[in-house]
Amino acid sequence: MGRHKQPEIRDRILNACVDHALAHGLPDRLEPFVKASGSSTRMLIYHFGTRDALLYETLRRARQRQRLFYGSLLSARQDEPYLVTLRRAWQAMTGPEGRPYLSMFGRLREDTEQQLWPTFKREATTDWLQPLEDGMRTVGRPELATLVLAAIRGLIMDIEATGDTPRADRAFDDFLAALALMTATGRTATGAS
Fold first, then answer.
1. Position 110 pLDDT exceeds 70
2. Count of C-beta atoms within a 10 Å radius of residue 5
3. Taking 70 as the threshold, does the pLDDT of residue 150 lie above it?
4. Mean pLDDT, residues 161-188
5. How confident is the model at residue 3 (pLDDT cuts 50, 70, 90)?
C-alpha cells in the first residue's frame, strides 16, 4: 500500500516556494525551491507533479495573497474618504510590502511565463474592478473604477520601466486631485454627466 499525500506538507512546501518567489522571482530550476522549502526535488515532484505545475501553483498562491492584501487596501472605510483610502493603498502597493507582488506579476504579464497561466492578463485586470467600483460608489461615481484602475496600472508599469517612484507618486497625487474634482462636480473630464 502506497503512502497517502499529506496536504499540510504540500501546503507548507507551497508557502515556502511562494515566499521565495516573491523575494527572488520564479526560478528557472527547482533547486531554489528545494532549498527554500527544506525539501527535495523528489518531494516537490511527488506533491506537484511537474516543475510547471509547481510554478503555476506558486503563482496562484501568490496571487491569492496579493488579492487579500490589495483587496483590504482598496476596501472603503467608513471613517475615511475613499480618495484618502486610494492614496494609502497606492503607497502600500508601491512600497516595500506590495512591491514583490508588482515585480512578480509585472514580469508574468510581459513574459513567456504567461504560458503557465494563459488567462492571467484578463484576471489581473478584472480582479480589481469590483473593489474599486465599491469604493468609488462611496463618492457617487462607481463608473470611474475603470479609470482608477487604468491610472494605477499605468503608473505601476511606469515604475517597473523606469524605477522613478517619486515621479509616479506625484502623478498619482495629480490624478487624485483630478478625481476629486470629478467626484465633487459629478462630471467627467469631458463635461458629460
1. no
2. 9
3. yes
4. 89
5. low
Stated pTM of the model? 0.82
DSSP the chain: -PPPP-HHHHHHHHHHHHHHHHHH---SSSHHHHHHHT--HHHHHHHHSSHHHHHHHHHHHHHHHHHHHHHHHHS--TTS-HHHHHHHHHHHHHSTTTHHHHHHHHHHHHSGGGGGSTTHHHHHHHTTHHHHHHHHHTTT-GGGHHHHHHHHHHHHHHHHHH--HHHHHHHHHHHHHHHHHHHHHT--TTS--
Amino acid sitting at position 53: A
